[in-house]
Amino acid sequence: MDLVDGFERGLDEFGGRVHRVGAEQWASATPCTEWSARDLVGHLTGEHLWAPWLLRGATLDEVGDRFEGDVLGEDPVGAWDSAASASRAAVRAPGARDTPVHTSAGRIPADDYLRQMTLDLAVHAWDLARGIGADDRLDEDLVALCLDYASGQADTWQGLGIFGPPVPVADRASRQDRLVALLGRRP
C-alpha cells in the first residue's frame, strides 16, 4: 500500500468511528486511560488542523497557539470532518511531500510525518472503537503498513511517553493484535 493511500485509509478508519459515536458516548473511557472518546477525537482533530500548515513548511511558532483548547466545539463530528478534509487535501497537494516538516522533535521528512500520522489514525481508530463498543477491526493493508513502521520505531518510542510498554501476545496473534500490543494496548 502506498503511503498516501495508507494515510487516507487511516483517515477513513478513524472518521468512520467518529461518525459512530453516540451522543451519550462522548464521555466514554478509551484504552488511552487519560482520554475520553471526546478527548481522543479532539487530539486527532487538532493534529489534522496542524497538518496543512506543517505540510506547507510552517514552523511551530508560525502556527502558534491557534489550535489550543477545545477544537471540537458543539459539533465534534463536523469539526473532525473539516479537519480531516483539509488534512487530506494538504497531503494530496503538489509538492506536499517534498519539504521537511517542523515538529517538536525537529525537522523530519514529510513521509516520516505521514507515517506517524497514519499510525496515530490507525491505533486511535482501534481505541475509539473499543471506547464506544464498535467494531475494532482495521483494514488489513493499513495494519500491515503501520506494523512495519511501528516495529522499527517501538524501541525508540519507549520512555518518551508516546505509547505504553508493549503487551505480550501469542506468536500466532493476528497482525492487528501484534500492532496494538506493540503500542501498549491489550488486544
UniProtKB/TrEMBL annotation:
Species of the source: Streptomyces johnsoniae
Cross-referenced InterPro entries: CHP03086 (IPR017520), DinB/YfiT-like (IPR034660), Maleyloyr_isom (IPR017517), MDMPI_metal-binding (IPR024344)
Chain ranges passing through the membrane: none
Any single Pfam family the record assigns to this protein: MDMPI_N
The protein's name: TIGR03086 family metal-binding protein
Source taxonomy: Bacteria, Bacillati, Actinomycetota, Actinomycetes, Kitasatosporales
Mycothiol-dependent maleylpyruvate isomerase metal-binding domain location: 9-129
